[in-house]
Each structure stands twice: as C-alpha cells, then as structure tokens.
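[agent] plan:
  1. take the single chain provided in the ticket
  2. run structure prediction with default settings
  3. attach structure tokens to the ticket
  4. add a short note for the reviewer (M.T.)
[agent] executing step 1
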Amino acid sequence: MKMPTLEQFRKNRSVLFWTLHAAGWTAYGITQYVGALFYEKPASYARVWLVASLAGFVLSAPMRYIYRQLWGRAPRIIIVGVLLTCYVTALALRVVINLSYIEFVAPDWQMQTRFEIFGGALSTAYLLLCWSVLYFGIKFYESKRQQEEAMLKAVALAQEAQLKMLRYQLNPHFLFNTLNAISTLILDNQNRKANHAVARLSDFLRYTLDQDPMKKVTLRQEIEALDLYLGTERLRFGERLKLEYAIEEPALEALVPSLLLQPLLENSLKYAVSAREQGGLVRIEGRTREGLLELSVIDDGPGLPDGPPTGDRRGVGLANTRERLKVLYGENCRFAALNTHPGLRVDMALPLETAPPEERSLQRNLSARRSGGVHV
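[agent] step 2 finished; step 3 output follows
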C-alpha cells in the first residue's frame, strides 16, 4: 500500500487534526507521568494522568466544531467564545481528573464543599487555551496557504489566457496576407502556384492549430514551421526572397515559445521584400551564450520609421513578440529592435531550456520523416 505524501497528509484536514490532537494529548500524558516520577508520586498516580489524557482527548475534541462556527466572526466574539469554551471544557475535565484522583490515589479524601470537585479548573483552562491558540494558528496558516494557492492559480490562468490571446492574435494577420497573395496568383492566372500555396497554407494552419500556445517547442521545430510558412511566400516572391540561416547546432535543441519567429519574419517579408521590386534579404541567427538562447531576425529593408510607433502591422508584430516574452520570462529576457541603416535587426535573449534527450530524439525522427530535416 502506497504511503500518502506529506502534501496529501496536509490537505486531508480530518486526518491532520486527529493526528495532531492525539499526539498532543499523548505528549501531555507522558510529561505528567514523568513529572509524577520526578516528584516520587505513588504508582497509582499514573492511572490518574492516563484517565486525564483520555478525558482531555475526548472532551476537547468538540472544541474543534465550536471553533469552526466561530471562525470568520468578529474578533471580540471569537475571544469571548474561546475563553468560555475553554473554561467550560476545563470544568468538565477537572471533574474527571479529581474523581479519578480520589478513586486511585486518595480514596479516603473527603471534600469540604461541592465546589472542590472543580479544583484546578483555571490551570486546565490555560492548557486548553494553549490548545486553542495552536488550533487557530494552524487554521490561519492553512487558510493563508489556500489563499496564496488560489491567487497563484488565478495568476497562472490569467497568464495562460493572455499568452493564448497573443498567440492567436497572429493567425488572422498572417491568414489575411496569405489569402491576398493567393488571390493575386489566381488573378495572374498562376493557378498551379496558387494550388501549391493553398496546400502549404493548409499544412501551416494545421501545424498552428495542433500546437498548444502554452507549450514550448525546439528551435528545430520552429524553423520547420517557418519553412511551412515560407513555402507559400516563396511561390509569391520567387527569387526576390533571399533567406539565410546561421544557427548553431546546440541552439537547435533549445526550447522557444511556438511561432515566436513567425511575426518577425512576416514583418521582414512585408517591408524588406514585398515593398521593393528588387526584393530583399532576411537572415535568422541563433546561438547559445552563458545560459541564454540568443536569436536575431535581420533584414535589409527600410527599418523602423523615426518617431513614436505608428501602430502599423510591423509595430503589432514587434509588440506582440515583446509582450509574449515578458509574460513568459519576466525580467529574465531581452528584446530589442534596432535600425541598422539599411535594415532592421531584432535581437532576443531568453533563458536557455532544452527538452529531455528522449523527446529531442523523437522530434528529430519525426522531423526527418516529415521534411528530410532542417538545413542551416
């Protein structure tokens, strides 16, 4: 039988309470017994503290259910309720202890008044007050932990929703641009190219729909996704599109957010290739340095205009990518877009993460079967 973990034990409130409750009263009985031996009490005195421990275990247990009703009330109500509960329980416990003392230790003892049966109630009430402080302390600690866990879960869900929104924001822009390109091919009676473009578009959209926006992929897979995207764009631009890869082999196994490079590449194609009759060059670089994965997308186009952002597609793609990295990595990443006169250089640096070896091997096998591998 598998033993429960510490976390499972902590989350089972009933098991936690009864375990601590039993341990506390057991410790009380042991300390009283040791004290009796130290003060050379008669052997029959052990029976008294055995009864006291059992009675304390039974009589203090209902305090848990009373305190459940007090939890969340005004502080003064809680204080009054705790003091009253402790004192009433202490009176009942002292009756049991005093009667057992008479029974086992001093059978000839005669009480002068009926109230002597409650003797020692204040010291016992102090003991139960300590029990109460521990109960409320543990309950408060567990409540705070639950609130923190709920807050962390809410933050994680909000972060996931934000990342999905940012990822899915890219698809309409890409789809509209690609459909316009296919429409142009059809109007130019380039039906074969248009058919090929539709097929590559279908492959790329299938890839984007299959990928979980929260899941990271290897840079090798990311380049393969870009090749699916570029299959359509190459039909559109032909020799006008010049593409270079300069990616180190270790960087190919690093993990990146899926479709991280696509909006940056789309920007470069639109402004450095499509807008110029002679076309342009786009270069993708990747390297690992000191625990970081450094990526760059470089083109020889006009770069960013001077002045504040204009809100065009280039600004949307850059802002989207910057925001995705910020949500995922916080302050542990860098993102910069710099004019190189001519051209634009987008540099990114994010924490270096790699997939497990068996997963990397599986991905390479799938990649080889699907496309013959990535050539860089």
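[agent] step 4 note for reviewer: The first strand starts at residue 216 and ends at 218.
[agent] ticket updated
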